[in-house]
């Protein structure tokens, strides 16, 4: 890579800090206001788990020009309730659990919502649901993980280009810039096997009316640690520039200064997107001429303050902190055992301002909550079965004319309703076939299946 000297800007290329974003920027009618500079933009990549609200706000604080949210599946949003939290200023999209949290007053003008989708109608429906809280809609067309591809989403769309084009066209026509929603539509893709195929795809994508395109310079089978391939980059940037589509390069970019070098070397008009480097240090958005990335101790303190201010779920806070604290550091071990915000604060030597009543509540992830509900239901069912069996035994004893318990035809069968096993099911069925005759001759409707 060529070494390009970059002169410090007269005015820092960073837009307003999240806390200072003027209220008028947050109106749904106003297109996103992103300060134009002679530097390329440097933006936070979409990252499941790592790219949740607290990371986005911290990245903005450190100068990210735009932040992408983690991929959210369109169908999971449909049917969500939108709940405002006046205390934190956040907005939650909730179904049985929290699907997605945004903070319009602190991020909206720079926040792009990324969705996983496989169909135009669900993509449009989901986009309309979040429209008032975001500044753009992005379609993930690069995720190679089976949970995405098996449902026809992510990188599967690279194998079904007509479908990808129809999704983008539908979004442009229904929620795009020329509609009342006025949202720029974008797509994030990976490389196809050849440069020619990649360029042909980008040419087609640009014709759908999208506003932005990100090229992750790896093919779908490539692993995150593999070196990004940049031979399609200049051509891709040129195609987008000619089509009036803002182009972002992604893959192996370490920070603001590295981003500017790549932008310059490959003639990119738009900007560069950073994932893993920002996951481990969101201050990588600070240019060297403004002091450069900050030490991790400072970063984790800032992160905690933001996380507490938005009541970030503790499981996510802990996950993100563990990515920021070096694995070899003693603090990493202490953090990994933390169960509450109080524990995290103690490990980081911070005063905990997180409300006690929320500390354990937020510990419950959606999965934990779902498991608890399932357990409660099973317990209720078990109690009901026990009640019915006791009732059956009582009636049976009456029918046998006062035979002592343990005597008679059921003494061979021991039924433990607490056991959810086939043996139990078979035993109860056998009981039903032999002994379950009630005084009137009718079988007791015991639910044998468990
Ligand atoms: C933890 C993690 C989660 C990711 N989640 C998403 C996602 O939700 N959507 C997406 O398009 N890419 C996702 N990616 C891929 C990144 O956006 C990015 O394309 C990739 O990491 C390459 O950038 P890098 O070399 O700067 O890490 C994820 C990557 C990581 C590390």
- As a whole number of angstroms, the C-alpha radius of gyration is 28 Å
Query: Could you give the count of β-strands?
Result: 12
Give the cofactors and ligands: flavin mononucleotide
Q: What is the name of the CATH topology of the largest domain?
A: TIM Barrel
Largest sheet: 9 strands, parallel
Explained architecture:
The chain is α/β, with parallel strands linked by helices and 450 residues long. It folds into 2 domains: 18-293, TIM Barrel (Alpha-Beta Barrel), CATH 3.20.20.70; 385-434, no CATH class. The protein contains 17 helices and 12 strands. Strands 1, 2, 3, 7, 8, 9, 10, 11 and 12 form a 9-stranded parallel beta sheet that branches. Strands 4-5-6 form a 3-stranded antiparallel beta sheet. α1 (53-61) packs across α11 (296-309) and α4 (120-130) runs parallel beside α6 (161-175). The protein is globular and about 95 Å long. The structure holds flavin mononucleotide. Its cofactor is FMN. Residues 390-419 have a biased composition (Basic and acidic residues). Catalyzes the synthesis of dihydrouridine, a modified base found in the D-loop of most tRNAs. Specifically modifies U47 in cytoplasmic tRNAs. Catalyzes the synthesis of dihydrouridine in some mRNAs, thereby affecting their translation.
């Amino acid at each position: 890579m060529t070494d390009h000297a970059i002169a410090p800007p007269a005015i820092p290329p960073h837009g307003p800090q999240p806390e200072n974003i003027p209220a008028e920027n947050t109106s749904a009618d106003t297109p996103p206001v992103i300060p134009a500079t002679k530097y390329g933009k440097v933006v936070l990549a979409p990252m499941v788990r790592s790219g949740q609200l607290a990371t986005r706000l911290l990245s903005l604080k450190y100068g990210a020009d735009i932040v992408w949210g983690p991929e959210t599946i369109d169908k999971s949003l449909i049917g969500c309730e939108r709940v405002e939290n006046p205390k934190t200023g956040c907005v939650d999209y909730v179904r049985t659990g929290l699907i997605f949290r945004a903070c319009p007053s602190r991020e909206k003008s720079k926040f792009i919502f990324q969705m996983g989708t496989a169909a135009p109608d669900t993509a449009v429906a989901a986009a309309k649901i979040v429209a008032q809280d975001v500044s753009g809609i992005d379609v993930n067309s690069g995720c190679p993980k089976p949970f995405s591809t098996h449902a026809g989403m992510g990188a599967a769309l690279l194998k079904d280009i007509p479908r990808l084009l129809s999704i983008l066209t539908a979004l442009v026509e229904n929620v795009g810039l020329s509609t009342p929603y006025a949202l720029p539509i974008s797509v994030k893709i990976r490389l196809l096997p050849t440069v020619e195929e990649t360029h042909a795809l980008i040419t087609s994508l640009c014709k759908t009316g999208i506003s932005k395109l990100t090229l992750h310079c790896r093919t779908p089978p490539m692993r995150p640690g593999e070196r990004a391939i940049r031979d399609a980059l200049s051509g891709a940037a040129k195609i987008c520039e000619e089509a009036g589509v803002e182009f972002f390069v992604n893959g192996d970019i370490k920070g603001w200064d590295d981003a500017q070098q790549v932008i310059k070397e490959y003639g990119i008009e738009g900007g560069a997107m950073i994932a893993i480097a920002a996951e481990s240090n969101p201050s990588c958005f600070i240019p060297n001429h403004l002091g450069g990335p900050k030490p991790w101790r400072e970063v984790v303190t800032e992160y905690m303050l933001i996380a507490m201010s938005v009541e970030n779920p503790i499981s996510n806070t802990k996950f993100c902190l563990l990515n920021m604290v070096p694995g070899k550091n003693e603090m990493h071990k202490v953090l990994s055992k933390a169960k509450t915000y109080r524990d995290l604060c103690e490990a980081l030597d911070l005063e905990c301002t997180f409300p006690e009543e929320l500390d354990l509540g937020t510990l419950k992830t959606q999965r934990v909550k779902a498991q608890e509900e399932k357990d409660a239901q099973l317990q209720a069912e078990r109690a009901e079965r026990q009640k019915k069996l006791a009732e059956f035994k009582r009636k049976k004893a009456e029918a046998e004319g006062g035979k002592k318990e343990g005597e008679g035809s059921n003494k061979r069968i021991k039924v433990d309703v607490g056991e959810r096993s086939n043996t139990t099911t078979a035993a109860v069925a056998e009981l039903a076939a032999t002994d379950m005759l009630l005084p009137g001759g009718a079988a007791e409707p015991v639910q044998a299946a468990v």
